[in-house]
Amino acid sequence: MNDSKIWAVLETMFPVALEDVPLDGQWLKPPFADDAAGRAVVCNDGDFQFVVVDRTNGSVRYVCEDDESLIASSLETLPKIVAAWGAIDRDTVGPEDDEDFSAVKKSFEQQLKVLDPPAAAPNEFWALYAEELTSDDYVDVDEIEEDDDSDFFEEVEEVRSDA
Predict the structure, then answer these.
(1) Which phi and psi (to 5°) does residue 99 adopt?
(2) What band does 156 get if pLDDT is binned at 50, 70 and 90?
(3) Is 117 a member of any domain?
(4) Using CA of residue 93, residue 137, residue 144, residue 18, what is the dihedral sign?
(5) Does residue 80 sit within a domain?
(6) What InterPro entries does its record include (predicted)?
(7) pLDDT digits (tens, 9 = 90+) for 42-93
(8) Alpha carbon distance 18, 27 (integer Å)
(9) Considering the entire predicted model, what is its pTM?
């Protein structure tokens, strides 16, 4: 698969829809560099995480150091998967509301099983990411920043009352 065919699919999602994909890094425009396996690198975080399109079979994979997981079994299914994820990403409060998020997660998993059964497998990208979001170890960065701000303002008020 050449760069023109890859870009024909990615361009329809560039850049807004691709920003919904839960990845660090920048989505790239052609010409695409190849990784060591000859796959087109279409997203890169500048460090050790990237997304590749297999030029032979069109699969889209997430690569992080020595680990790989399937994002889409074909480049043609990627826009549908991204649209389904984007809809829940925008419409859901997030892991703070576990019951709502769990229901939305199940809905996405069901959609993914219809859109791309191999990408819906338990150890592939979407399942791993959704599991991470429902983990007790998940930390919402926005929530931490809000908590830090409130602590700061409480400390300022205490200092003022002591003066």
Answers:
(1) -65, -50
(2) very low
(3) yes
(4) negative
(5) yes
(6) SUKH-4
(7) 999 988 999 999 999 999 999 998 899 999 999 999 999 999 988 776 655 5
(8) 7
(9) 0.78
Q: How many CB atoms lie within 10 A of CB 31?
A: 11
Answer positive or negative: Cα dihedral of 5, 70, 110, 26. Answer: negative
Question: What distance in Å separates the CA atoms of residue 62 and residue 132, rounded to the nearest whole number?
Answer: 15
For 98, the domain range is 3-133
**Residue 150 in domain:** no
Give the number of residues written for the chain.
163
Q: What is the number of structural domains in the chain?
A: 1
Partners of 51 in the β-ladder: 43, 62
3-state helix, strand, coil in the chain (%, to 5): 50, 15, 35
Position 156 in a domain: no
User: Residue 58, by phi and psi: left (phi above 0), alpha (psi -120 to 50) or beta?
Assistant: left
